[in-house]
Amino acid sequence: MEVSSDREDIYTPGELDREEGQVIEELKAKSQEAIPDPDEWLEEDLERNILLTSVDAIINWARRSSLWTAMCFPACCAIEIMAVEGPRFDLSRFGMDILRASPRQADLMITAGTLTWKMAPNVLRIYNQMPEPKWVIAMGACGISGGIFRSSYNVVPGYNRIIPVDVYVPGCPPRPEALIHGIRMLQRKIAGEPVLPDLPQFLQKGKQG
Amino acid sequence: MTVALSGKEIASQIEEKFPDSIEESSQESLVVKSDSLLSVAAFLKDTGSLKFDYLNYITAVDYYSYFEVLYQLTSLEHNHSVIIKTRCHGRENPAVPSVIGLWQGADFQEREIYDLMGINFTGHPNMKRLFLWEGFPGYPLRKDYL
């Protein structure tokens, strides 16, 4: 359908095309030389963009800020762990809200609960499957010493009978604040650990293990 | 509410069918001789007016001179229950017949009693320790355990 218009065009025929050509010609005439890269800063303040630290400090910072817990909670202290994980006490603040179902992805074991001798080989196996470096928090009276079941015929009197423990958190069960305090203590301990092992000692340990 | 049937009444019913199978009976419970336990239990389960089709629990008591194994039975149809007991003498190898053929739920409970009390349930297909491990010395729930 043909559109009829009574209006006169404001542009004469071909005027827009000529204007466009003029713009292009002007830009082309202006752009014969390359614009220099903005690289003055390289010469000015190179030092300001480099952070100097030690390998120990940066690796330990990474390690203590992302402690992932192996899901191995044999008894009732696990309820307090759930409280700590939850929004009220919010363990995510310490970069460790992720509970790993596989011990191979974990580097912290929180021993929440009474351990029986029948369960002990399985806990030891979980510990052995965790990759180095790994840490253990003995949580609650049962984790520390067997608690009220210490003299029982089937209870392990403290996790330190089967695995090395870094931090002991007493209580039956410990308050979430106490567990968080224990985790903070462990983080301080990790911050002071050397990243590279003392080599002769490390090799000796490997032979034994 | 489940009606607890009188042990004496049930004992008289059992005595009619199986004479000389009841050691004693009271309002609360009845004590069955262990050699006639299986036939009495089958009678309690299959008789239409009793129909004890559900085994609530099995437990055992150490009375020094004998062990008593205790069964609480419930009829889901008639909503009544009864407690029957049986005794086994001797601390070396006490034994009572297993009721696993009548009530499947007896399986783990009989194993637990074997584990902790040392009572052998003859006829149980898998009579081994449940909570403790092979090689554990003694039976911890016995009165003479350390």
Helical region count of chain B?
3
Major β-sheet annotation of chain A:
5 strands, parallel
Quaternary structure classification: heterodimer
Q: In CATH terms, what is the architecture of chain B? A: 2-Layer Sandwich
Q: Span from first to last CA of chain A?
A: 91 Å
Helix residue percentage of chain B: 10-25%
Distance between the termini of chain B: 41 Å
Provide the residue-averaged pLDDT of chain B. 91
Percent of residues of chain A in beta strands? 5-15%
Main beta sheet strand tally, sense and closure of chain B: 6 strands, mixed
Description:
The complex is a heterodimer of chains A (209) and B (146). Chain A has 209 residues and is of the alpha/beta class. Chain A has a domain at 61-193: Rossmann fold (3-Layer(aba) Sandwich). Chain A is 39% helix and 8% strand. Chain A has a 5-stranded parallel beta sheet. The model of chain A has no long low-confidence stretch (mean pLDDT 85). Chain B has 146 residues and is of the alpha/beta class. Helices cover 23% and strands 31% of the residues of chain B. Chain B contains 3 helices and 8 strands. Chain B has helices at 7-17, 37-46, 106-117, and strands spanning 3-4, 22-25, 29-32, 54-62, 66-75, 80-89, 95-97, 120-122. In chain B, strands 1, 2, 3, 4, 5 and 6 form a 6-stranded mixed beta sheet that branches. A two-stranded parallel sheet of chain B has the order 7-8. In chain B, helix 3 links the parallel strand 7 and strand 8. The relative contact order of chain B is 0.16. The model of chain B has no long low-confidence stretch (mean pLDDT 91). The chains are: A alpha/beta (209), B alpha/beta (146). Chains A and B meet through loops of A and loops of B.
What structural keywords apply?
heterodimer; A: 209 residues; alpha/beta; Rossmann fold; five-stranded parallel beta sheet; 8 helices; elongated; B: 146 residues; Beta Polymerase, domain 2; six-stranded mixed beta sheet; two-stranded parallel ribbon; 3 helices
